[in-house]
Design a protein that fits this description.
Length: 131
């Protein structure tokens, strides 16, 4: 009984981007990483450490254990960058490319645009020697 209750429970979490990311452009942040081409449909929720909203279409997911993924949404998500906060609901313990995020105005609080996620591409940090 407990497992079926857990399986259908809906989890809602909100992410707000790190303050330092707001001061850096998408190009500045992405210049620290190399794209691997390794695409994943989902990432485990418990592994997400933080997120950085880079623009209205791009979110960086920093994972516990130092892995980093970029998610490029298939379409622009209005006010995602300016609000720098989003929430989601899922009935599983993963965040997937089939999930919808909702931009949150944290000042009111109010839900704004809802947008679909894209696939998660694994990134590797560039070494200081390669810069």
């Amino acid at each position: 009984m407990k497992t079926s209750i857990l399986a259908i429970a809906i989890t809602a979490l909100a992410f707000t981007g790190a303050a330092h990311a707001a001061k850096q452009s998408k190009d500045e942040v992405m210049s620290k990483y190399e794209r691997t081409g390794e695409m994943q449909n989902c990432v485990p929720l418990q592994s997400i450490d933080s997120t950085d909203v880079l623009d209205d279409k791009t979110i960086l997911f920093k994972m516990k254990g130092k892995d980093t993924y970029v998610n490029e949404l298939p379409y622009q998500c209005p006010q995602l960058k300016s609000q720098d906060a989003f929430s989601y609901k899922t009935s599983v313990n993963q965040l997937c490319n089939t999930d919808i995020i909702t931009v949150i105005d944290t000042a009111i609080p109010q839900r704004l645009a809802s947008c679909g996620l894209g696939k998660f591409e694994k990134l590797t940090e560039k070494s200081e020697q390669s810069e």
